[in-house]
Amino acid sequence: MTTRDGRTVRIAAGQGFWGDWLEAPVRQARDGPIDYLMMDYLAEVTMSIMQKQKSRDPSAGYARDFVPLMERILPDLVERGIRVTSNAGGVNPRGCAEAVLAVARRLGLPRKLRVGLVSGDDILGRLDELIGRGHPLSDMETGRPLADIRDRVLSANAYLGMAPIVEALKGGADVVVTGRVTDTGLTLGPIFHEFGWSPDDWDKVAAGTVAGHIIECGAQASGGNLLKGWRGVKGLANPGFPIAEASPDGSFVITKHPGTGGVVSVASVTEQLVYEMGDPRSYITPDGVADFTTIRLRPAGRNRVRVSGIRGGPRTAMLKVSIAYFWGYKAVGTLVYAWPEAYDKAKAADRVLRQRLTDLGLAFDQILTEFVGVDATHGRLSGPPHPDLPEVQLRVGVRAREKAPVDRFTREIAPLVLTGPPSVTGFAGGRPAVEEVVAYWPALIDRREIEPHVRVAILEA
Amino acid sequence: MTVAKSAVRPLQLRYLAHARSGDKGNTANVGLIALEPELYPILVREVTVSRVARHFKGMVNGVDRFELPNLHALNFLLHEALDGGGTISLKTDAQGKVYSTALLRMEIPVPAALARRLVRA
User: Fold this and answer.
1) Where would you tag: which of A231, A256, A411, B98 has the fewest CB atoms within 10 A of its CB?
2) How many CB pairs under 8 A join A and B?
3) Structural domain includes residue A457
4) CATH number, position A372
């Protein structure tokens, strides 16, 4: 289906995050021709959640949804020759790979399945050694050295690029399972493998990076969350997830399967391009630096947008490291106040609640009050509310390093129903939950400390 | 030629642009995209760092602006906009998803005839 002699390689996005629409990868595999199914599961703090799961159960620590999904679609993938790249492996890529192999054996596929296993991104066990050898792993935002919070670190992973994915595909992997590989690497890997491009062809790296960025958030590039002309976006009950059709000249087309909902347009692709953007001239990944000011977009038929002209520069000497650490606790309580004078009642309730928290001597790092229906999304920019609002939700959040004040706060919401302002409802959910706050610590490390430790294994079932 | 003051009126950005926003730590970004390519120079001229900083006064601390003429878009970084950001934030919009439309509330001066056409469309 794929060739290196002038035809395109089709990479389809199956998940934009862990928890995205479960039907999407199934439809990508069945509703039209694709060569690769790319699935991104890892957000910034996902690794710490997985680390916590693994500490309770050594066989856990990866995106569990990935395994039943593979069980559902492996027969289609094998029949159609579709290969998978995914960072579903989280902090236990071996566990994830073995679970996929077990599923493959159970399914009795017509041929053996090869799973590529990428490891070496996890540096939790090497932190003291690295700090000891003079790598401070300072927070990129605050400059503080990691030593300040070393005893609270829960997970630490370097962002790997496309290289191990290319190697796994070269080794014949049908499904590549990784830990913390960048979302863009999951797209770059297949393109570079298919076209045999050199990893230091920086314009090609930049082009593949942009393709990866466009499809990595799933339907957000194909009509989902599209603001321009949102009423005219049809068929979102069955949105077509984006597909990048890469050409050997480094340009590509973003499209979706025929017969699916949503839309691929210059507007839908542009909105995704600017999502989570920093300095557009230097979009830095482990594989290179893309210049988003060189991207050319033009319509290329119904639900097709051609992307070309992309320039890029060499990769940097450093890799980003994603560290998660225990911060403390938070909780959010809500109550709904009804007409008449709903907003005034909600404000009065907030004053009562805050007085009680003060009287109890509870200390918080932050208490934040929002009035949903008045100011929760745009703050003071919303202007004065309509004087006759039908209802207002009072939403109060607290956070603290210690658990006790947050726990006590959660017991102060329900009492307001009988001891505060009138016309209050919406507390059926009971006492708010105390949540552990795991915070993100982005750092940099010399890539020479990481790359020699990266391993690619091909497992067979 | 100078345009007479009466020929200019304030218009909300929602009539000139669409937008998407996201987060990086405690910083929100807003990509502001001209609804038509001809409107991009107006955005470049009128949606300045100082105007955006004034618009978000008290909500953010520091604004950067980048130009993407190829996409007819401006990218704004709004620093300290997310109550700590990520998992720490207590905000409903902890990930800055709707700073996009908050920017579209901003008014800029636009030639009155153009404003009439844009509001009708």
Assistant:
1) A231
2) 123
3) no
4) 3.30.70.2750
Calpha distance A183→A69 (Å, rounded): 19
Q: Domain containing A432: what range? A: 323-439
Q: Which two tokens stand for residue A87?
A: 């960072």
Contacts of B114 (CB under 8 A, 6+ apart): none
Tell whether B118 lies on the interface with A, counting CB pairs under 8 A. Answer: no
Strand A424-425, strand A318-338: pairing: antiparallel
CB neighbour list of residue A132: distance below 8 Å, 6 or more residues apart: none
Q: Which of B92, B100, B105 has the highest number of chain A CBs within 10 A, making it the mutation to test binding with A?
A: B92
Write the pLDDT tens digit of every residue in A307-321: 999 999 999 999 999
A217-245 pLDDT tens trace: 999 999 999 999 999 999 999 999 999 99
Taking the CA atoms of residue A436, residue B25, residue A321 and residue A246 in that order, the dihedral angle to the nearest 10 degrees is 120
Q: Which pTM does this prediction carry?
A: 0.96
Q: Suggest the residue from B70, B98, B100, B104 to mutate for an interface test with chain A (most A CBs closer than 10 A).
A: B70
Query: How many other C-beta atoms can be found within 10 angstroms of the C-beta atom of residue A278?
Result: 16
- A221 and A362 together in one domain: no
Alpha-carbon distance B120 to nearest alpha carbon in chain A (angstroms): 15
